[in-house]
């Protein structure tokens, strides 16, 4: 029986299950539900394309490209993707333009410390020329059971963070502290409850999960896959995150990008944790 949802890890910084695969700091998933093919984030480079090719995954006929947020370790592969899709256009391979879904702030230039732009290598105007684009801070339903969450409300005080050196460049040229409002995720309604797919969880994994439960009108959570942005969290935040996740009683947590080994060990004390590798497919 074909699974309702399949998530294949194309790129991550974790160890790889096959030395042929390219690992890098970043994240990219190939998501399939029914006949819909979705590329979720593009990593830092074109490594996701090379890995997909070695896995036998065809990215020529994507239905959607969904970006979790604008940082270059999630959008850096857009240039390679555009070149790849452009190179596929021919009489024997008719053009299929995937719809790109992201938050409206996703393509605003971002600065951090000495980096003039740690955001997308493509501007919004360039993306508009290459894709059918849907920029929304509201939930966008991809299928009857899968939704891009849009802007995630920040409800848990322990997940609020100081922007520090992070700055976002607004359309009028002003630079302001970047609260990363563009950080979003995908939620899927499976028969066992929600499957939540995150890119980096700058908005907070608990905030994301709670909002997904609200948008989908489903309280059960079957699993969470993706980056948690928990590299060296304060012990108090880590404990509160663990206790929140423990109360959900879900089947499995699959931490990837931006989650330190120490945090993975700590979270394993609160909920069932599964290791992840480039090349594995997680199915529901």
What would you note in describing this structure?
The protein is of the alpha/beta class and 284 residues long. The chain has one domain (6-283): 4-Layer Sandwich (Metallo-beta-lactamase, Chain A). It contains 7 helices and 16 strands. The chain has helices at 47-55, 72-75, 78-87, 124-130, 205-216, 235-248, 261-268; strands at 6-11, 28-33, 36-40, 64-66, 99-102, 110-112, 132-135, 140-141, 146-148, 166-169, 175-177, 185-190, 193-198, 221-226, 252-255, 281-283. It has a 7-stranded mixed beta sheet with strand order 7-5-4-3-2-1-16. Strands 8-9-12-13-14-15 form a 6-stranded mixed beta sheet, with helices on one face. A 3-stranded antiparallel beta sheet has the order 6-10-11, with no helix packed on it. The longest helix has 14 residues, at 235-248. It is globular and about 45 Å long. The chain starts with 5 loop residues before the first strand and ends with a strand. The model has no long low-confidence stretch (mean pLDDT 93).
């Amino acid at each position: 029986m074909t699974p309702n949802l399949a998530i294949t890890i194309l790129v991550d910084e974790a160890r790889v299950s096959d030395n042929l695969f390219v690992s890098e700091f970043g994240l990219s998933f190939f998501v399939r539900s029914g006949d819909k093919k979705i590329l979720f984030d593009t990593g830092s480079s074109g490594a996701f394309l090379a890995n997909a090719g070695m896995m036998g995954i065809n990215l020529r006929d994507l239905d959607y490209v969904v970006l979790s947020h604008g940082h270059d370790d999630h959008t850096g592969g857009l240039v390679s993707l555009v070149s790849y899709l452009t190179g596929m256009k021919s009489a024997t391979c008719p053009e299929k333009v995937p719809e790109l879904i992201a938050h409206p702030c996703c393509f605003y230039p971002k600065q951090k410390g000495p980096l003039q732009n740690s955001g997308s290598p493509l501007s919004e105007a360039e993306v508009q020329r290459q894709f059918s684009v849907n920029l929304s801070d509201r939930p966008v339903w991809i299928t009857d059971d899968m939704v891009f969450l849009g802007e995630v409300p920040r409800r848990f005080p322990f997940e609020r963070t100081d922007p520090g050196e992070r700055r976002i460049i607004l359309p009028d040229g002003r630079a302001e502290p970047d609260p990363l409002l563009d950080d979003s995720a995908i939620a899927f309604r499976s028969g066992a409850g929600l499957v939540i797919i995150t890119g980096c969880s700058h908005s907070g994994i608990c905030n994301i999960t709670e909002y997904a439960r609200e948008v989908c009108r489903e309280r059960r959570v079957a699993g969470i896959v993706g980056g948690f942005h928990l590299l060296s969290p304060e012990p108090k935040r880590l404990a509160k995150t663990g206790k929140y996740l423990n109360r959900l009683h879900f089947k499995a947590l699959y931490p990837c990008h931006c989650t330190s080994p120490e945090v993975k060990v700590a979270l394993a004390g609160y909920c069932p944790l599964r290791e992840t590798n480039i090349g594995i497919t997680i199915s529901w």
